[in-house]
Amino acid sequence: MIELFLVLSLVFNAFLVFYAVRLARRLLTVATNMDTVYQIFDNFREHVEQVHEAEMFYGDQTLQVLINHSKEVLDSLEEYGDIMALVEIEEDGDAEEEE
Fold first, then answer.
1. Is this model's pTM higher than 0.70 or not?
2. What are phi and psi of 48, to 5 degrees?
3. How far apart are CA 87 and CA 95, in angstroms?
4. How far apart are alpha carbons 1 and 32 in whole angstroms?
5. Where in the chain are the domains?
6. Under a CB-based contact definition with an 8 Å cutoff, are residues 76 and 38 in contact?
7. How far is the C-alpha of 59 from the C-alpha of 53, rounded, in Å?
8. CB < 8 Å & 24+ apart, contacts of 30-34
9. Model pLDDT for residues 25-67, shown as the tens digit of each residue
């Protein structure tokens, strides 16, 4: 009887390990994609600021609103920075293992 529980426990634990690895891979993919999105929005904000500072558009209120909106979007993305921190820790661990 105890052998049956041991086998069931081993099977269940193996399934949990497999499932945890799958979830970790998905989390890594999501975090990498979020980092890419953040970089795209940051580049967009910088570009809009450069256009706003150009002599022809300096002081344009529409561009100023666009700049403010892009900053709000970046701030919203930074709220999810904990996922990116997990990826950075994992990538650092992988780099140390390779050395």
1. no
2. -65, -40
3. 12
4. 47
5. 29-98
6. no
7. 8
8. 30/83, 31/83, 31/84, 31/86, 31/87, 32/87, 34/77, 34/80, 34/83, 34/84
9. 888 888 788 778 878 888 888 887 787 777 776 777 877 788 7
